Amino acid sequence: QVQLVESGGDLVQPGGSLRLSCSASGSIASITDMGWYREAPGNQREWVAQVGSGDSGGSDSTNYADSVEGRFTISRDNAKNTMYLQMNSLEPEDTAVYYCYARSMGTIYWGQGTQVTVSS
Fold first, then answer.
1. How many CA within 13 A on the CB side of residue 24?
2. Predicted local distance difference test score (pLDDT) of residue 78
3. Which string of DSSP letters, residue by residue, matches 29-52?
4. Cα-atom radius of gyration of the chain, to the nearest Å?
5. CB atoms within 10 A of CB 41
6. What would the DSSP string read from start to end of 78-107?
7. Which of 21, 66, 84, 118 has the fewest other C-beta atoms within 10 Å?
8. What pLDDT score was predicted for residue 58?
9. Is 28 helix (H, G, I), strand (E, B) or coil?
10. End-to-end C-alpha distance for the chain, whole angstroms
11. Given this model, what pLDDT does residue 14 score?
């Protein structure tokens, strides 16, 4: 079992920045990739970004949705069991509930979500 808790969501003006955090606990050693999805009102849940495990001392591989490429940066600190999503140049279209996920032994675990609202 893996437990995930997101934090960092807030109200921010267009062009602003936020950093989301996702803290993991439980069977952490079995986690492979992690990432973020978001869900805006009336829309389906949308994949945002993914970061690999960085095994064997290698750097974590990252992937981004086209809509956030160049504006968002995903990272993970395995020593702190925490994943981050740095969001810059935020747009009203980024308004959504952001969910982190972790894949462990074929099962995907989800956090409870954190609200990000981009509005003037």
1. 30
2. 86
3. GGEEEEEEEEE-TTS--EEEEEE-
4. 14
5. 7
6. TTTTEEEEEE-S--GGG-EEEEEEEEETTE
7. 66
8. 47
9. helix
10. 40
11. 98
Cα–Cα distances in angstroms (integers) from residue 120 to residues 59, 68, 117, in the given order: 37, 20, 10
- How many of the other CB atoms lie within 10 Å of CB of 47? 14
Residue 64, CA distances (Å) to 3, 101, 115 in order: 24, 15, 20
- Quote the pLDDT of residue 28: 86
Backbone angles phi, psi at 29, to 5 degrees: -60, -20
Ranges of the chain whose pLDDT falls below 70: 54-59
Query: What is the C-alpha to C-alpha distance for residues 19 and 26, in angstroms, rounded to an integer?
Result: 23
Token code pair at residue 4:
């995930």
CB burial readout 53-91, b (16+ within 10 A) else e: eeeeeeebebebeeebeeebbbebeeeeebbbbebeebe
pLDDT at 109: 97
* The one-letter amino acid at 38: R
Q: Could you tell me how many helices (H) and strands (E) the chain has, helices first?
A: 0, 11
pLDDT score recorded for residue 52? 86
